[in-house]
Design a protein that fits this description.
Helix 2 runs parallel beside helix 3. The protein has helices at about 5-10, 15-35, 55-80, 95-105, 125-135, 145-150, 200-210, 220-224, and strands at about 40-45, 80-85, 115-120, 165, 185-190. The protein is globular, with a radius of gyration of 18 Å. The chain is of the alpha/beta class. The protein has a single domain, classed as Undecaprenyl pyrophosphate synthetase. Bound molecules: 3-methylbut-3-enyl trihydrogen diphosphate and magnesium ion (MG). The site of 3-methylbut-3-enyl trihydrogen diphosphate has 10 residues, from helix 1. 3-methylbut-3-enyl trihydrogen diphosphate (IPE) binds near residues 2 and 5.
Length: about 220
């Protein structure tokens, strides 16, 4: 979800105004994802690198996360959304932590849409934490398969993403789902996140539908 700051700057408003608009997009897109029959949606909302931003902006982002859970959790639970916050819990304020845990616990019985919020998330950090967890579990590291290792990632039990969409014209992975996105298809759109809407999502899904996924195999004409 990129482009909140530029969206606000274009309106001569503070960056936090853009983040607030970005939350409105989250509300719409989570609903749209459900309507379109998506089973799993992961939103990158705060990275382990975002701590380098100005204090006031970080505070605004933390406040928005709280507001989102406080304001939307009951409705999300009613609508069948199961929430998981992926990322490290280290460095998060106790009040934010409490809400994250509440969101996960309250929605744990749901299964219509798996909503992951990548918050205080970095792909390298996740892999490192998974490695430490695997070691601490007493598992036989030497015999460990990729599937075994994935059980220690924050996304354990979930399928790898089929499609990664990045808004606002940037064409980078920015430490996102490094392990899980190994064979994901990518769609990059110029649209800034606050402007991203259902037709942009449908357009991305249509682009995805035209892709031939081979997962490293030879094109099928050569196979035949
Ligand atoms: C994305 O918007 C939201 C977060 C990273 C929290 P940005 O804040 O990165 O917006 P730009 O890139 O400055 O436009
Ligand atoms: Mg950005």
């Amino acid at each position: 979800m990129d482009g909140n700051g530029r969206w606000a700057e274009a309106r001569r408003r503070p960056r936090s105004f853009g983040h607030r608009a970005g939350v409105e997009t989250v509300r719409r897109i989570v609903e749209d994802a459900g309507d379109l029959g998506l089973r799993c949606l992961t939103l990158y909302s705060f990275s382990t690198e975002n701590w380098t931003r100005p204090k006031a902006e970080i505070a605004a982002l933390m406040a928005l996360m709280k507001e989102y859970i406080e304001g939307d959790l009951a409705r999300l639970v009613r609508e069948g959304v199961r929430i998981r916050i992926i990322g490290t819990r280290q460095g998060l304020r106790p009040d934010v932590l409490r809400l994250i845990e509440l969101a996960e616990a309250r929605s744990a019985h749901n299964s219509k849409l798996q909503l992951n919020i990548a918050f205080n998330y970095g792909g390298r950090d996740e892999i490192l934490r998974a490695m430490k967890r695997a070691a601490a579990s007493g598992a036989d590291i030497a015999a460990m398969s990729e599937a075994d290792f994935a059980q220690h990632l924050d996304t354990h039990g979930q399928p790898d993403p089929d499609l990664v969409i990045r808004t606002s014209g940037e064409q980078r992975i920015s430490n996102y789902l490094l392990w899980q996105a190994a064979y994901a298809e990518f769609v990059f759109t110029e649209t800034l996140w606050p402007d991203f809407n259902k037709s942009d999502l449908i357009e991305a899904l249509q682009a995805f539908a035209t892709r031939t996924r081979r997962f490293g195999a030879a094109p099928s004409s050569e196979v035949a």
